[in-house]
Amino acid sequence: QVQLAESGGGLVQAGGSLRLSCAASGRTFSSNAMGWFRQAPGKEREFVAATSRSGSTIYYADSVKGRFTISRDNAKNTMYLQMNSLTPVDTAVYYCAAAPTSGSNWLYTQPNHYAYWGQGTQVTVSS
After folding, report:
1. CB-based contact 34:42 (threshold 8 Å)
2. Where are the beta strands (DSSP E) in the chain?
3. How does pLDDT run across 15-29, given as a tens digit for each residue?
4. Lowest mean pLDDT among 66-75, 76-85, 97-106
5. Rg of the chain over CA atoms, in angstroms?
6. How far apart are CA 89 and CA 108, in angstroms?
7. Rounded to the nearest 5 degrees, what angle is found at the Cα of 108, between the Cα atoms of 107 and 113?
8. Got the DSSP string for 80-115?
9. Which among 33, 43, 67, 85 counts the fewest CB atoms within 10 Å?
10. Mean pLDDT, the chain, whole residue set
11. What is the pLDDT of residue 39?
């Protein structure tokens, strides 16, 4: 069982930056591939970024590539999402998710691969 809690969301002007954190409980954080997703009002949840168990494999959605950086610190049971050059299109509730996996370099982009989810943190980008 993994419990996840996001933090770091807020209101920022276009062009600004935010850093989201995802704190995980339990001793199995390093056994999970991790991902960030977001959901804007009236839209489906969409993939943002994912990292493998070790952090050696990373993948981004095209919409955030070059602006967002995903990272994890297994010693601190925490994952991060550094978001730069934010635009109003990035406005959404951001969720972190964990996927238990035996593959150290595996990651997942589909929500149905993730077993555990946080409650979400709101990110609002004003124009």
Report:
1. no
2. 4-7, 10-13, 18-24, 32-39, 46-51, 58-60, 68-73, 78-83, 92-100, 116-117, 121-126
3. 999 999 999 997 789
4. 97-106
5. 13
6. 23
7. 125
8. EEEE-S--GGG-EEEEEEEEE-S-TT----SGGG--
9. 43
10. 96
11. 98
